[in-house]
Structure formats: structure tokens, C-alpha cells
Amino acid sequence: MFASCADPSTLEGLHWLACYLTSGKHMAFYASFGTVMALLAITAPAALAFGFAGAMATRSRLWPVQWLGRAYTAMVRGVPDIIFFLFVPIALDQALEWVRHKTICPDWTEPVRRGSDFVVCAQAKLPLSSSPQWVHDTYGFALAVTAFAVVFGAFAANVLHGAMRAVPRAQIETAEAYGMTHAQAFWRILVPQMWIFALPGLSNLWMILIKATPLLFLLGVQDIVYWARELGGAKTSIYAYPHPDWRIYYFLGLLVFYLGLTKISEVVLGRLNARLSHGQATLAGEAQRKAAA
Amino acid sequence: MSCLQTIQDYALRSVGIGERLLPRSGFTICEQVTLIGSGMIWNVYFGLFALLAGFFLATAVALARLSPLVALRKPAEWFIFLFRGSPLFIQFFLAYEAFVLLPKAGLTLDLIFVEITADTRWLTRAWAGALIVLFLNTAAYTAEIFYGALRSVPRGDLEAADAYGLSGWARFRRVVWPTMLRLAWPAYTNEAIFLFHATTLVFFSGFPAWQQKGDALYYAKYFADKTFNPFVAYPIVAGYFILMTLVIIAIFGLINRRLNRHLPPEARPRLRIRPQVVR
User: Is residue B153 pLDDT above 80, yes or no?
Assistant: First the structure.
């Protein structure tokens, strides 16, 4: 980074530290905070969409769809989420490769599973082994995002389903008395009103999502936990910047980062809740009215 | 090899009893079910002891948080914020690194007490180190639940206690604490369920599985990696966890019934799983 960092072995004290903290690997470490933020930014809306679809399916009048929705909302209750994080990416990867294998190489007669191997033809590999490194990275990240969206979608479906049931029944009945169809009553009456009931649950979900991001490490993405372990480990003198085992300081840094993130979220969500409660016929809205009077 | 033989060999593998080598190839369903079930011993161990010990610390922390004394309230608030505001995964890593450094850091002390040096090593093992983290973590989450419940103890109950001449410890033991438990029980059931789920993180964070003695998910991942087939091992471990969740709900339901035995059955609060306290 700085020109004076060319020969680290001659540096001392703060200058050494400044050069150390701006080395190329540290830049990758700082960039990985962006990976975490990107994951949050992509997963939150995706999970909300999954959750909305799940909650809608639970309300469906077609029993297979309803059954599917119920199974989806129930799955996170009994099974630890980390199992899904391990299962979904690899299962999805194999499913995609299998489908491509069947369509691209139909004349391949040998079975895909051979003993303890999963073999598809070279053209069906995802991503193709000839593709550049960034494609592999993006594909891995996309699988991770999908796993997060599926799991947190199931949590969100729980929250949204509860919120839909919390909207007073009389509202829907009134809508139907005005001659609205089922779909119209759902989209025009139920959906706009349910958000205030969903907000506490969704805020909680956001906190959980933040705290789940270090699990990216388990999915093989080079995230902040990966770099903290990598950079913190003891470095012998063959490295440019030798130092003893500093992992504890790196993890302390991550801890502070997460505490800050949850604290900021708490404050922002608190304000949002206060704004949305304004004028609502809920306990919080009533408290606001009394405080103002 | 018959299934009975497999059960004899591997049913207690996770605690080091039985066959030393894990199966290497030609995995049968029986082997996977047995070995993953053997790993559940660790999940139950971590969950059970963290929950039992955490319960008492949580009560103390919740009371401290409600205390008018700043010297008690502030540490309790910080404790809860620290463990609820950060990921359990990071807490495991941090604790492991701290425990690893412990003997080195305590070197000056060891010159006088030589035997301590050798003794801190057990903290880096999962059975102790991870249990401590889980214990503190669940204590923080539970303290928040208990704190909320303590704040909603009806004033009438307290006034009645005063009228009966109860005060101090007797009032707490006979009125405040049972009411708090009653109010907190549905949320606490959730906490218990998700604590057991969180035990699967132990061997995926800093703590290494010593001599391949791991928990259920550790073995499930072992099989999934070896066979490159996630569709057998992960459903098995999921099945085990669904069973355990049902057992927890049953046990907590019984306690709930006992706590609310003075109420008619239809007035008792019902236990429902709400994914609210995941880490």
C-alpha cells in the first residue's frame, strides 16, 4: 500500500503495524466484510419472498399446496438450521448437475452415483471446470445465499403466517361484503395491514440473520471468519510480517463488529417500530398517544 | 457384518467405547443410523448441562438486571447484550482461542503453583470449553426471558404477599419465582429447543473433535463427505433432532402442567414452538 512498506523487516512499532494492517491479505479481509453485507442485502429480501410464498401456501385452499406450506414452515422448528446450511447447497448442486446431465448427455448409460462418487459428464459440471475462478466463487456464494434464503424464508413464513392471522377477521369479512374476490381481499386488505403485526417478528429475524452470517464460513465462502483464522494464525519468519498467534484479537474484532451491527439494527428497528405504530390501534400506538397528550 | 454387531461396535463410539476405527467404505444405513445416534449423546450432554446450570445463572442475572443498584444492573445488562448480540459461532471461536492461550498467559502464576499449568488444558477440550460457552450463552438468553417475566408479575400478587406478611426470600421463593416461571415457561421451552439445536455448532467451530469423538452432525458430515451423498446422512440427523424436539416439548409440557396445576386445564398457557430465540 505505502511505498515505505517495501521491506517490512526493517520496520518497527506503529509503522510496522500500519504496514501490516494495510497488506494485500488484510485488504481481502476488509473486503470480506463487504461479502457479509452483500449476503445480508441479498438474503433479506429473498427470504422475505420465500416466507411470503410459504405463508400464502399455508393459507391455500388446495390441500397439496397447503400441506407443502405447512411442511415448509414446520421444518425449521424441529431441525437445527445448520443442518440445512450443510444440506441445501450440496443437494442443490447435485440436483442441478443431475438435471443438466440428463438433458446434455442423454446417451450416457452409466449411473450417476457410483459407490461413493457422484459423476456427471464433463459438459454438465457446474460451473464448467474450464471457467475462471470468479465463476466458481460466485457459484459458491449463490448456493450459500440460496441456503440462507430457504432457511430464513421458513422462519419468515412462520412470522408472516402469524401476522396474517392477527389481522382482524372483520376486515376480510367487510371486504367480501363489498363484493371483493378472495384474491382482492387478500392483496388490498390483508397484506397492507399485516406488516405492523409482522414487524416485531421480522426485526427479530433480522437479528438472527445477522448472527447467522458467520456460518458462511462452513459453506466454504472466504468470509470474515475464514480471513480471521487465516491472518490470525501464527506466522513464522518466512512470512513478510511474522507474529505469534493473534487469532484471539481478530475474533475480538469480529465480536465487536457484530455487537455494533446488532446495536445499530436495534436502534433503527426501534425507530421504525415507533413510526409504524403511530396512530395504530395497538398497545404501542396507544402508549404514544397518551405520551403526547 | 450384521446390524446388531454394528450397534455393539459403534453405539458408544462418540464417547470412546467400542470400535476405534470409523467405517471407511461400503457404508450401510445401519452404520449411519448407529453412529449418528451415538453422536447424539454429545448433543444431549451439552444441551442438558448447559440448560440446568444456565437456569440458575439466568435467574440471578434477571434479578440483578431488575435491581435498583447500578453496580448490579449494569454488569447484568452488559452480560446479556454481549451474549445475545453476537453470534454463538464467534463466541465459540473466541472462547477456544482464549482457552488455548490461557496456560501461556498464566505462566507467571505457574512459577508458584506449578500444578495449574497442566490443569488448564482441559478447557480447550469441547466437553468443558464448549459447555462453558453454551452455559453462558443460554444463561443470557434465558435471563432476558426471565427479566421480561419478572416485570410482568402482577402487582396484585405482590400486594397479596405483603398482606400475608411475606417478605424478602420467602416472598421471592413462594410468590415471585413461581409466577415468573409460569409466565416465562412457553418462551423458555423455545429457548431449550433452540439451545439443543445450537449444540450442533460445537464441532464446527474452533473446538476440534478429539479422536473423532463428535456429535451427531459431525458424523453426519463425515458420511456425507465420504459418500458424497447428502440425501441419507442429513435426513437421519434431522430425524433424530425432530425426535429430541418432541421429547423436550413433552417434558416441558409436563412441567408446564405442574406449574399451572391450580388453573383449570383450558386456562393453562399452551406451549407452542415459535422460532424466536435462535442464535
Answer: yes
